[in-house]
Amino acid sequence: MSSASREGFRRWRGERPFWGGLLLALGGAEILFTEKASLKVVLHIGMQGLAGYLLPTLMLLLGLLILFNPTQRLFYSITGLMLSLGTWLTSNLGGFFLGLLLGAAGSCLAFGWLPDQEPRRGRRQRRRAVQREAGEPA
């Protein structure tokens, strides 16, 4: 991967709640994976487990929508959180807790993301800026 494409991806990632959308999509995918597990623990409720497949599929879709349409992140993240909590009942305790936790954490990260926020500076960068202002050599 060239440095130009890496910088382009970094810029694209910085313009959206990347980690929130990714975690929500991974949570939905993990729950879908546990639905297909060949375990005796797997539960199927309703019309052959329709809700067990519908909720994680919507979680996966909402995670992708957060990534590719970040302007509507508030609606998508609230809906994703409700769906994540709903998988507790419909999809093997939220994919054995892992998918539930990934979906909830991703939804919270997407909800809290601010688009016009200055990037965080590391401790070294802040220290160098203070040293430059004081006239000390770095």
UniProtKB/TrEMBL annotation:
Q: Where are the transmembrane segments?
A: 50-67, 74-90, 96-114
Q: Alphabetically list the UniProt keywords.
A: Membrane, Transmembrane, Transmembrane helix
Q: Which domain of life is it from?
A: Bacteria
Q: What is this protein called?
A: Putative membrane protein
Organism of origin is: Streptomyces davaonensis (strain DSM 101723 / JCM 4913 / KCC S-0913 / 768)
